[in-house]
Amino acid sequence: MNTIRTVGLVAKHHLEAASGVLAELAGWLEARGVETVFETDTAALAGLPPDRPTHSRDSLPNHCDLVVVLGGDGTLIGMADRIAQADRDVPILGVNFGSLGFLTEITLAELFESLEAVLRDEAEIEPRMMLRARTVRRGTVEAERVVLNDVVVTRGALSRIIELSVAVDDRPVMRVRADGLIVATPTGSTAYNLAAGGPIVHPALDAILLTPIAPHMLSNRPVIIPGSRPVRLTPTTDSAQQEVFVTFDGQSGHPLEGDDAVEIARAARPLRLVRAPTRTYFDVLRQKLKWAER
């Protein structure tokens, strides 16, 4: 039984190549009795009349049963965070208009086949762990975000190496002297974590990755911990006078003060990601990274 009655459409900002696809997609869905709702900027990109009702990216998850994203991984990550903030269990289907496309892995040629499978309730929808991070300042939550890829604490451009105290389950684990530290999900293992020398972790695993960025000591190696264990990062006294920043999925962030702590734990809901019908996770690694090829 089809449970998808309304589909939200979101495209990357100023992605002119998607304008014709959006109109075709809306017509295809409406011909099958599925209502389409457009994100405001996406509606303008598609050339819809200005009097047609639309929704902001923040509110769109509250008005649909499925989100279709046309763009790259950054556009999908932005919508994934918004779905989590709305506390909705809305699956997301990403269509790749970018270059890599680890998350927006469905090609334009596969779009309608993939949507047909979703409407028939036959698509593979994969849960992807998300992390909830909050900055605590003098006992008050200063900022709170939900991320799909990673939380990164890093030094400022002119700062020296910073030192971070890392606790897991409120127990001291290590001190890291480095340019920073990445706390990543398995999905985020192929993002900044991979560039920093961290391992590739299959997204089906319930795990959190702790990867130092350019560590001062060679003994500071990446660590993988169970996904159920909360992490707490605190700049040490030596780092208090330097510029230290926390960023969330590379899309937002803020400077940290000396007594701040960043608390990170598995989010209550995973993201539900519609998988491409013709490729496994390892196929994607081979295509995007040339992984395990001679």
Account of the 3D structure:
The relative contact order is 0.15. A 6-stranded antiparallel beta sheet has the order 7-6-17-14-9-10. Strands 13-12-11-8-15-16 form a 6-stranded antiparallel beta sheet, with no helix packed on it. A 4-stranded parallel beta sheet has the order 2-1-3-4, with helices on both faces. The protein has helices at residues 19-30, 40-46, 73-85, 111-119, 192-195, 281-289, and strands spanning 6-11, 35-38, 66-71, 92-96, 125-128, 131-137, 140-147, 150-155, 162-168, 171-178, 180-184, 207-213, 223-226, 231-235, 244-248, 252-255, 261-266, 271-274. The chain has 6 helices and 18 strands. It is α+β, with helices and mostly antiparallel strands and 294 residues long. The protein folds into 2 domains: 6-128 and 270-289, Probable inorganic polyphosphate/atp-NAD kinase, domain 1 (Rossmann fold, 3-Layer(aba) Sandwich), CATH 3.40.50.10330; 131-266, Probable inorganic polyphosphate/atp-NAD kinase, domain 2 (Tumour Suppressor Smad4, Sandwich). A hairpin with a 2-residue loop joins strand 6 (131-137) and strand 7.
> What do the pLDDT scores average to?
91
Strand line-up in the sheet with most strands: 7-6-17-14-9-10
Specify the helix fraction band. 10-25%
CATH architecture of the largest domain: 3-Layer(aba) Sandwich
Query: Helix and strand succession?
Result: EHEHEHEHEEEEEEEHEEEEEEEH
Q: How far apart, in Å, are the first and last alpha carbons?
A: 45 Å
User: What is the CATH third-level topology name of the largest domain?
Assistant: Rossmann fold
Main CATH class of the largest domain: Alpha Beta
Biggest sheet details: 6 strands, antiparallel
Continuous helix count: 6
How much of the sequence is in beta strands?
25-35%
Number of strands: 18
Model regions low in confidence, pLDDT < 50 over at least 5 residues: none
Classified in CATH, the superfamily of the largest domain is: Probable inorganic polyphosphate/atp-NAD kinase, domain 1
Rg to the nearest angstrom? 20 Å
As for the number of domains, it is 2
Structural class computed from helices and strand pairing? alpha+beta
